[in-house]
Design a protein that fits this description.
Shape: elongated
Strand content: 15-25%
Number of domains: 2
CATH architecture of the largest domain: Distorted Sandwich
Number of strands: 23
Largest sheet: 8 strands, antiparallel
Distance between the termini: 58 Å
CATH class of the largest domain: Mainly Beta
Radius of gyration: 25 Å
Helix content: 25-40%
């Protein structure tokens, strides 16, 4: 049983191999180089997997989404190599038998009720691809119709009107989008209409991704991220490129270079005969008709109202704030306890970071820490999480967040609060500052001669106060507020602590953070600590390394409200400076 994590470890490593992520890149390489031997190797690897994993036996028959990935990967790989080689009739029967069983499994054991998240979309895509691309299979028409019904319901439900994911994870948004591309591709190849609801969601997601991730900026860590890749091409897809693909497919103006992105060739190519599902990346593509062309969003401040994601920008900086819901109810599987958390990038490099995900199964201590409040740039009270963890993918009571002031235009200021520590409430305001405002706040809060020229300045103000109409005595509230901690997590680099601030530097990027508080603060830097964990980042799944984290603690507060004020100055110094 793969759930015996303490004995068996992380099952995802085995599942990833079962997804056979090399198949489509091999097929692309074979197609582009006309390499028949490599094309035959694609067929042989599929047959090897089929023969080594008999139906309903072993770890590769325990998760519908894993079967769904194979349906798509095998279909695309075989379509790509079709001009070079093809399985024999007997081999087609072997592979098709498994495709049919995979589709049947995805229907019989589809993810319903509390688990109806990205897994259900994957299962719907597998049904539709199996039904349309493998029309000679028994029940092919039934598979296709069942897949259509799932996707026409779930894609508009799971991609919200602002373009975000119902799971409140940008990584899973990207995964769901690629799943929808695969389904859209086979629909278009068979003369089936792409629903307007899909196109509307694609447009909204294009706006979100192109607003959040300009040029080379990375996809921010918000909630879980396992780097799932539905159609790997051998060249990682950047979020800006995915946004451009969405824009192209939904009828928006895009950069000409977008047509050279390999993923685009896999999901939209010339409308050739049915057996040829995809095309090499060099072939031309055309946008879908019937949608308005929308100019790209160039605002430096924006709130995505359904997910609560806030974007603030300076000339060289990107600040993101998570002012939205905890995740997808009722189990919130991929959520983190990160309400009101903030991250900051300088010139495309994360500096104030969300430490990431690291693992799913097998290392419960690390799974819990990377999801904890103490692992995010927000306020922790009483060494407790804002929301209640009940399991690796299960939450109980969750913090409820609401926007209390939106002054993004023209002042680039926004405030929100959450009730995760009821009867206490945590409120946070963030604002981008002009140079004059930054100088004024420096004079008010600290006696400092900090050089803030050419720096992008931001102000973060945190308040911990009683909830309105709280029926708790002041003494009880003060006891609940013991060990109120403001956490700031930094990317690896040199972090120097001063009397009321820190200075971080790595290469040409610098950040200075100056704090003040309503009561004396105990400041401490943590890095690479194990018991309990603190001071770590995970840039990608299964990888972690030490990084500095700043703890600002008010251990025994004497009065409420408790307040922290953080002035942040970010600089990018070119090599010549």
């Amino acid at each position: 049983n793969y759930r015996h994590q303490s004995r068996l470890g992380e099952v995802k490593y085995v599942w990833e191999l079962g997804r056979m992520p090399w198949l489509v890149p091999w097929a692309i390489a074979a197609r582009l180089t006309r390499d028949g031997d490599l094309a035959r190797r694609v067929v042989e690897d599929i047959l090897s997997f089929v023969r080594s994993n008999p139906p309903y036996r072993g770890v590769h028959w325990t998760s519908g989404i894993e079967l769904a990935v194979r349906v798509v990967a095998w279909t695309w790989a075989l379509a790509l190599i079709e001009p070079l080689t093809s399985p024999t009739e007997h081999e087609w029967q072997e592979i098709g038998f498994h495709i049919a069983l995979y589709a049947d499994y995805c229907w019989r054991f589809r993810s319903l009720y509390s688990s109806a998240n990205n897994h259900l979309i994957a299962e719907g895509v597998a049904l539709q691809v199996a039904g349309l691309a493998w029309p000679w299979l028994p029940k092919a028409a039934q598979f296709a119709e069942r897949g259509r019904a799932i996707l026409d319901r779930e894609i508009p439900r799971q991609i919200l009107p602002d373009g975000s994911s119902i799971e409140m994870c940008l990584s899973y948004l990207c995964e769901v989008l690629v799943w929808s591309f695969a389904a859209g591709r086979v629909r278009a190849q068979h003369g089936l209409r792409i629903p307007d609801s899909w196109l509307e969601r694609w447009q909204a997601s294009a706006n979100l991704l192109l607003t959040v991730c300009r040029d080379e900026e990375p996809l921010p860590h918000l909630g879980d991220d396992d780097e799932g890749d539905v159609l790997p091409t051998g060249q990682p897809i950047r979020p800006h490129e995915l946004g451009q693909i969405l824009a192209l497919l939904s009828g928006k103006e895009v950069e000409p270079s977008v047509r050279q992105i390999p993923l685009l060739g896999l999901v939209w190519g010339p409308q050739e005969r049915v057996a040829r599902l995809c095309s090499p990346p060099s072939e031309s593509v055309a946008p879908l008709p019937g949608t308005a062309r929308v100019p790209p969003n160039t605002s430096d401040a924006q709130l995505f109202s359904h997910c609560g994601l806030v974007v603030l920008r300076g000339p060289k900086t990107r600040v993101l704030a998570d002012f939205g819901p905890h995740g997808m109810p009722p189990i919130y599987a991929h959520a983190h306890a990160d309400a009101l958390s903030v991250t900051l990038d300088i010139a495309g490099y994360p500096v104030l970071v969300d430490p990431g995900t690291y693992c799913y199964h097998g290392e419960r201590v690390w799974r819990d820490w990377f999801r904890s409040t103490a692992a995010h740039n927000t306020v922790e009270i009483g060494q407790q999480n804002q929301s209640q963890m009940l399991g690796p993918f299960l939450w109980g009571r969750v913090a409820r967040t609401r926007i209390i002031e939106n002054d993004l235009a023209p002042h680039q200021k926004i405030c929100a609060e959450h009730d995760g520590y009821a009867p206490l409430v945590h409120r946070r305001c963030i604002r981008r500052l002009s140079n004059k405002e930054a100088q004024s706040l420096l004079r008010e809060n600290v006696a400092s001669d900090i050089d803030i020229e050419e720096a992008d300045a931001f102000w973060v103000h945190d308040t911990v106060a009683p909830l309105a109409n709280a029926r708790t005595s002041e003494a009880e509230l003060l006891n609940l507020a013991r060990d109120t901690i403001l956490w700031w997590h930094f990317a690896p680099g040199h972090l120097h602590l001063t009397s009321n601030g820190v200075h971080w530097r790595r290469g040409s990027r610098e950040l200075t953070l100056i704090w003040s508080a309503s009561e004396p603060v105990i400041a401490e830097i943590h890095e690479g600590e194990l018991s309990p964990p603190q001071g770590w980042v995970s840039p990608c799944f299964s990888v972690k390394y030490p990084a500095p984290a700043l703890e600002l603690r008010i251990a025994v507060p004497q009065r409420l409200p408790i307040e922290f004020s953080s002035l942040i100055f970010a600089r990018y110094r070119a090599a010549s400076q």
